[in-house]
Protein 1
Amino acid sequence: MSDDIFDLIVVGGGPGGYTAAIRAAQLGMKTACVEKRGALGGTCLNVGCIPSKALLKSSELFEEVQHDMEGRGIMVGSVKLDLGTMLGQKDTTVTSLTQGIEFLLKKNKVTYIKGAGELQGGGRVEVTGEENKVIKGKNILIATGSDVMPLPNVDIDEKQIVSSTGALELPKVPKHMVVIGAGVIGLELGTVWRRLGAEVTVVEFLDRVLPGTDNEVAKTTQRTLKKQGMKFKLGTKVTSAKTAKGGVTLTMEPSKGGSSETLKADVVLVAIGRRPYTEGLGLDDLGVERDKAGRIMVDNSFKSNVDGVYAIGDVIEGPMLAHKAEDEAVVCVEMMAGQKPHINYDTIPGVIYTWPEVATVGKTEEQLKEAGIEYAVGKVPFMANSRARAVGSTDGFAKILADKKTDKVLGVHIIGPDAGTIIHECVIAMEFGASSEDIARTCHAHPTLNEAVKEAALAVAGRTINS
Ligand code: FAD
Ligand code: NAI
C-alpha cells in the first residue's frame, strides 16, 4: 500500500465531487479527488448543463436572426449555419471550464487523481487508469453521479440512436429527429435541433410533457413549443428500433395498449431519464445499501450504512440537478467538520432552458391539492409586463401559490422570458419564509421582467395594478 493517506477521498469530480473536495480542503482536510473521465466537471460540465446551454444559445441566435429582426428594422442577408464552428464554440467553452476546475483544485491544494476509484474497505480506494495506486482515507465520499437510462430494444450507438451525449455533437442537422421522452433533456435538445432546421417529433409515454412540473406550466410549455414547430406524440410507447443505412424505424404503440405503428427518423434521441451510476465502485462487496432505483441510501448527514462512507448528488435520492449536488457537497463536508449547516429541499429551483424558459420552486398546485393544503393563486401573463412587450417575448405567465391562511409562499411557477433568472428572488423569499404580501410590498425596478413576480404576488390578494 502507498503512503497516500487523506482525511477525505472524494470519488467523482462532477459538481458534487469537486465542490466537496474544495470545501473540505478549505476546512483543513487533506483531500483527494478521484476522477476517471480524464477531465473534471462531471456530466454537467462535459456532457450536460454547459454544452447544452452553449448550443441552446447559439441555436436561439440562429433562429432569432432569421425570423425576428425585420420587425425591428434590422435587415439581415441570408443566414447560413456553420455547424462545425457552432460545435467548436461549445467545446471551447467546456474545455476552458473543466481546466478552470483543475486550477481551482490546485489552488485549494486538493490532490487530483486521474483514474477509476474502487472502494476496498477499511478506508482504502484502489485507483486504476491513468494513475494506478491504492490510497487511504478517514472518510470516503461517493459522488459518481448518474448515467443514461437505457430503453429495451432501442440500442444507443451514439450515431443514429443517441443519448444526450451524442445529441450534443451530431455532425449534421438531421432531417427528422425523434426524441423519446418529453422531459427536460428531450425538450431542451429537441429545441436545439429544431431551431437548426430539423423536423422534431417528441414521443412521450405519459399523456403530458414534463411530469412533476406544475400542470398548467407543462401545458403552456407544450403549446408554446408546438407553436414553434415541435411535434408531440403523447401517450405513446416505443417498443423497438431498427437501424439501417437510410435511417431508423421506430415501432410504437399507445401506452394503454392498441395497435402498433412505425415512425422513421434520421436520428433518434433517447431521453427517458437517468439512473444513479455506481458501476465498479465495489459497493456490493462492502455492503453499501441502495434503494430499488439503485441510489445509495444515506441519512441526513449523507452517511451510508457503512462507517466512513458518504454519498451526495445524482447518486442519491432527489432531483438530478447540478446545484442540488453542489449544495449537498458543502453541507456534507461541513457536517464532517463538525459544523451545523442546512439544506432546504423545499427551495431548490428547477429551470428548463427552452424559450420561453420554465422555472419553478416549491410545491405545485397538484402537490398542494394532494396534501390537502388550502392555497391562494396569484397569476399574471407576461403580456401585461411592459418589459416583456418591449423585448417582444410575451408568451407565458408567473404564478405564485400562497397558503390561504398564513399567506406564506409555497410555490412559484414561471414560464416566460428569462424565467430562470427571475425565479431567484422567489427562491430567496421562500428561503426566508416570505408571504406573498412581503413580495408585493418589495420595490421592483421598472421596467423589468421581475415586475411580473410582484404583480403575481399582488394577484394573490386580488389587487393587481397592471393586469
Ligand atoms: P456527475 O456530474 O455525473 O459527476 C460524476 C463524476 O464521477 C463523473 O465525471 C464520472 O466520470 C465520475 N465517476 C463515476 N464513477 C467513478 C469512479 N469509480 N471513479 C472515479 N470517477 C468516477 N443540471 C442542472 O442543474 N442544470 C442543467 O442545465 C442541466 N443540464 C443537463 C443537461 C444534460 C444533457 C444532462 C445529461 C444533465 C444535465 N443536468 C443539469 C444534470 C447535471 O448534469 C447533474 O445533476 C450533475 O452533473 C450531477 O452532479 P454529480 O456531481 O452528482 O455527478
Ligand atoms: P426526465 O425524467 O426529465 O424525463 C424523462 C421523460 O421520459 C418523462 O417525461 C417520462 O415520462 C418519459 N419516458 C420514460 N420512459 C419512456 C418511454 N419508454 N417512452 C417514452 N417516454 C418515456 O429525464 P431526462 O429528460 O432524461 O433528464 C434526466 C435528468 O437530467 C433530469 O432528472 C433532469 O433533472 C436533469 N436535467 C436537468 C436539466 C436542467 O436542469 N435544465 C437539463 C437536462 C437534464
Protein 2
Amino acid sequence: MQAKIQSGLILGIESSCDETAAAVVREGRQTLSNVVASQIATHAPYGGVVPELASREHLRNIMPVVRTALAEAKVSLQELDAIAVTEGPGLAGALLVGISYAKSLAFALGKPLIAVNHLEGHIHAVLLEQAELHGGPLPLPALALVVSGGHTHLYLARQQGQSWSYRNVGHTVDDAAGEAFDKVAKLLGLGYPGGPWIDALAPHGDPKAVPFSFAQIKPKVHRKETLQEAFSQQFFFSFSGIKTAVLRYVQTHHMAASIEARRSALASIPQARPTDALALCDQKTLDLIASFQRAVVDDLRRKTFQAAEAFDAASILVSGGVAANRELRVRFTAEAAERSLPIAFPSLSLSTDNAAMIAAAAWPKFQAQELASPNLTAVASLTLGR
Ligand code: KG4
Ligand code: ZN
C-alpha cells in the first residue's frame, strides 16, 4: 500500500504486558492524547503479571481505550495517516490483542499499518518529549538505558536520514532491574509493582547500612574470555544475586515475622499505598531498602556512563518504568553534569508503558515507508538492534 502523508497523525496501540494503551501523536512530536488502562489491580493479588488475565483485560479494554484516545485528541479514524502497534517483545497473548485489533482497523480503513518494537518505543518516549518540551533534538549518538520490569538494555542510538539504528552494547544476563525491585518488594511484604514502594521508602533509610558487594551484581563468567568478550561484558548486568543477598539478609536477621505482620497489615488496608507502609517498617527494613536501591542505581549508573564513554556517545537517555525512580534521576543527572553530557528522561507518564511512544517511534518508519505486512504477528522475544 502506498502511504500518503495528509495529517501527520498516527494512532499508536500498545498491549505488550499489563497496560492497554492508545495514543494519537502528530509527526512523532506532538501528543494529542495518551490513554492507559492499567491492570495493576487485577495482577496485584498475585504479585506479578498473570498472562491469561492480561490478555482477557486487554480484550475488555482495547475498544474503549482507542475510542477515548481518538475522542481526547478530537481526531476521527478517517483523519489518521496510519495505525502503529507493538509487535514485541512481550507476552504473546497480550501482544496479539493489540495486533489483531490494529490489523482489523487498518484493513477496514484502508490505512497503512506500522509495526514497532516496544524497546524502540521506550527510546522514542524520550525523543518525543525532547522535541515537544525541550525544543530541540538530543545530540547523537545517544546512549540509551532502557530499564523496566522486563528489560535492562544499553543501546547506542543513531539516526541516518529518516531511519534510526540501534546497537545493543549491554544487557542483563538474568533478571531485569525492575524485576529485582518487584521481587525484593514482594520479599519484604510491600505492594505491587514494587518499584514505586521501594522508591518511596528508600529516602527514610541509610543507603550505606547494608554493604551489598559488587560481586552480588556482577554477572558470572564461566570460562576465560577473549579481550573482545571481556570488553563487552563490562556492560552486562545481573540482578539475581542482589535479590538472593536481600533474602539471606532477611533470614540471618530474623525478619520473617515482621515481614508477615506488614504483609497482613497492608492487605487489610483497601488500596494500600507506600505511605501506609512507612509506619509498618522498622529502621532495619528501611536501611535494607535504601541500601538495595542505592546498589542497583549505582550499578546502572556506573555501567551506563562507562558505556557512554567507551562508545563516544554525545548524550544519555534513560527510559522504561525504572526511569521513574527518583534516586536514579538524581544520581544520573549529577554524573551527567560532572561529565558535561546532556541527559534526558521521559516525564513520569511516559516512563512506564504507553502508546504515545509507539506512535512516536512509528513516525520515521511511516516517512520511510517501512510498513508492516498483513501477516504481522506477535514476536514475544523480539530483539532490538545488532
Ligand atoms: O516499562 P514498564 O511499565 O513495563 C515493562 O515494560 O516492564 O516498567 C514496569 C517496571 C516495574 O518493574 C516497576 O516496579 C518499575 O518499572 N518501576 C519502578 C518505579 N516505577 C515503576 N522502579 C523503580 N522506581 C520507580 N519509581
Ligand atoms: Zn516497557
